[in-house]
């Protein structure tokens, strides 16, 4: 693991492998030698299977296919909703992209409602598109409207850490009180707990985790001291 | 040869911007903030790339002709390092402000912005882009101010000693490519001055690498935040 700046060249191992899988932050140039360069600053990660990517600390979401995101309904057009997912453009969510939806039986989402959706289409030239089900099974799979609850915003890196099952924060909070949480890859976390106090406690803990100045140990200590 | 003034970098102080950087080079301080890619208004929308909006604000007074000229400088120096084609139909906003006053008198009632402020702004802009992490880049642009003191080229001139500013784009370990130059002097001295300025800009680039490495939790643990002065 090393830190790279944009323009840094990734030197492939010798002998060069048959294929390289380049993830976020890396580009292969079509100049002689086909060098691989970083186009984002961050920590370079590599696996023995030749998967390489850069973990960048950032707050602005850039849509990528298959990522789960939390969106806010911005307005409804005839057969689709336009959803704010924090990217440069509003995403489109077809009104029928929900489990069991037919022309006569559709979910009735209002402006301001929250949804947990998967990005089904994301490329730089088009507005992103969302789905609230698994396209192959047509089951909700956890996607759909997020009723009640509270949404907090954090950095993209914090969301990735919260989605890691080995991360300490959510399990340690769960030992204190029950709650539901949905983490979007777009820097948004939705939570629903039994009381306002618990909701505030969780959002404070996430805010502390997000803060660059506080260490993980301080956050863990804060959770331990919680009296909810 | 001389050292650069002591460099100090503070990141992420502006909570509403995607990225921000406050860079001090000695007593010259510049603040930069970057937001984007975000929604763009239809008059500025470009089908194949992002629109880069640069705003320059002086410390005193309102932005006038000089601020606009510096805006053009920064836009032309930074654009080569940005991969704007990766975010079509969007807006990237860069705002710069000088935080240190000029020591010279105002020119035609407009506040002055020194060459070293200009260089600090160029460096702060790069650091703000790196702090934001949301704009794809093909290199990092670093700037260096030069001056003459008793007939000797120096990289830490006072405002009266300033003779020029240079900006270089660094890609990996390649030598920096010149992206901005303004300088008053003898033509015969050009190569030498540009080369010394490039070395100064490299020091800024190395400083940025160390600072960002440390912020990411990698790299050496330094006791103080300020860069140790390098001798050329």
UniProtKB/TrEMBL annotation, chain A:
Molecular function terms, GO-annotated: RNA binding
One cellular component term from this protein's GO annotations in UniProt: cytoplasmic exosome (RNase complex)
Subcellular location: Cytoplasm; Nucleus, Nucleolus
InterPro entries: Exosome_RNA_bind1/RRP40/RRP4, KH_dom_type_1, KH_dom_type_1_sf, NA-bd_OB-fold, RRP40_KH-I, Rrp40_N_euk, Rrp40_S1
Keyword tags: Cytoplasm, Exosome, Nucleus, RNA-binding, rRNA processing
Pfam families in the record: KH_6, Rrp40_N, RRP40_S1
Domain Exosome complex exonuclease Rrp40 N-terminal: 20-60
Domain K Homology span(s) in chain numbering: 149-196
Any one of the GO BP annotations: U4 snRNA 3'-end processing
Family designation: Belongs to the RRP40 family.
PANTHER family xrefs: EXOSOME COMPLEX COMPONENT RRP40 (PTHR21321:SF1), PNAS-3 RELATED (PTHR21321)
Name of the featured protein: Ribosomal RNA-processing protein 40
TrEMBL record, chain B:
Chain ranges of the Exoribonuclease phosphorolytic domain: 7-133
One of the record's GO molecular function terms: RNA binding
Cellular compartments per GO CC: cytoplasmic exosome (RNase complex); nuclear exosome (RNase complex); nucleolus
Key word Ligase present: no
Keyword Methyltransferase: no
InterPro entries found in the cross-reference section: ExoRNase_PH_dom1, ExoRNase_PH_dom2_sf, PNPase/RNase_PH_dom_sf, Ribosomal_Su5_D2-typ_SF, RNase_PH
GO biological process per UniProt: nuclear mRNA surveillance; poly(A)-dependent snoRNA 3'-end processing; rRNA catabolic process; rRNA processing; U4 snRNA 3'-end processing
Subcellular location: Nucleus
Keywords on record: Exosome, Nucleus, rRNA processing
Entry superkingdom: Eukaryota
Family in the record: Belongs to the RNase PH family.
Protein name: Exoribonuclease phosphorolytic domain-containing protein
Protein species of origin: Calocera viscosa (strain TUFC12733)
